[in-house]
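Journal club side-thread
Mid-discussion, someone asked how the predicted structure for our own chain would compare to the paper's figures. Pasting it here so we can look after the session.
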Amino acid sequence: MDVVEGKEKFLQIWGTMSTHWGISRAMAEIHGLLLLSNNPICAEEIMEQLKMSRGNVHINLHALMDWHLIQKILKVGERREYFVAEKDIWVMTRNIMIQRKKRELEPMLKSLDELTGINGSGEEAESFKKMIKEIKNLTSKVDSTLESLIHAESQWILGTFLKLMK
């Protein structure tokens, strides 16, 4: 397998995995292309290489910038905008954790807080309150763990992971 075939296979895998992560295949393929690129790429090149529409590319570029996974680069004397991906895998992972926590976990915790104040008595109400409390406790622990991971150094995480594997 040569480099071109390897890149194509990587983009295919990266795009396929994206559906398991809850993001669109197009967004993942654009991110993967930028990850593998040694040079900044403009939207037109992305459209051409990935066979995507201008609108699809622009929407997903903005989403990737919102997630802090890519940056826009302006070249002197050029009207086109170019894009580069964050190449540090730990920084990329931390940015994803921050965004997922903000977009998914924090709203869930807020909703669970509202549900813990439910009125009522009886077996059904008590069972409901107990289940919500257990889910909230678990969600709070996940939130706390993510917060620790976000602020941890990559070497500490790798060392801790390796200790767990023993």
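Post-session note: The helical segments are 3-21, 25-36, 43-50, 54-66, 89-116, 123-151, 154-165.
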